[in-house]
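batch_manifest entry 22 of 60
target: HTH lacI-type domain-containing protein
source organism: Pseudolactococcus reticulitermitis
requested by: lab member K.T.
priority: normal
notes from requester: please return tokens only, no post-processing; we will run our own comparison against the previous entry in this batch. if the run fails, retry once and flag.
--- input ---
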Amino acid sequence: MAVTIKDVARRAGVNASTVSRAIHNHSAISEKTKEKVKKAMADLGYSRNSAAQMLASGKAGAIGVIFPPIENKSEQPFFMKILTAINQEARQNKITVSIASGHTNAELLSQVRVMYQEKRVDGFIMLYVGEEDAVREYLLADEIPFVIVGTPVERANDITAVDNDNKLMGAEATQYLATLGHKKLAFVTNTDKGEVFRDRYRGFDEKIQSLGLSGHLLNTTKTSSLGGATALVVLDDILAIKVIQGLSEQGIGVPDDISVISFNNSVFASLIHPYLTTFDINITQLGHRSVQKLLHLLANPSDFHEKVTVPFELKVRESTKAVN
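--- output ---
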């Protein structure tokens, strides 16, 4: 039987959440307590790979990946890239991956129920965050282990999540354009829903206010009314490419007439000119960490939930330039 965090906690004379924080080198845990935990781990032969050991002796030895109930998932390279990363990490831990996908939330919920009730999987990774989402509510109600890639608003303390700091990313995109001399900016989106949009736009808007710049929200169906903007912050790379094509049809060149900055650093960002200046959200690490956190929950179901923040990096390419 694999050693668990509870075993380590009993040996060290602390609670399980303290052990988990000590393992993650949390600043709230004293060095003395960390040393006690470290000694208990060594005495019991506990390793952070014990989650994989427990999974290997479990009922399924598999995890489920839940795709969002949307059409044309293949047009979003994020999903294929993160699935590749999840598969890589799962393979390292000698477990398999099953996919749950549906055109509607009802179809998706039905598939998730069957996968878990028939013991095909031990837990799930959700690749989306939805408001009042039936799938998430089912997982919570039945206390099924799961991790969300994204930032939940509702019941955040009950959910383990892996995400970037999208608000900070929106702010840094705005700051970068400001350093190039742009004073009139627009945030371009094709949706007003979802935490990714809300956080990135909030970061943009707050930075606009703090820098005393001019900024507004722009729907992609209205790219002809740029409102004098000299730079655009676009929700994601796919949308940015469509925006650039639309601007080109109007005789507006990027970056000579207007700068464009985007997010995700997808494969399309450097396929056609101008290459996109975009933020690399480190999809590979998002995938790896989501598997690691799910395995941890499976091995230690009573442990506390947390949000893991994965770093991002700005990739400066051809779609932005300084104001003359």
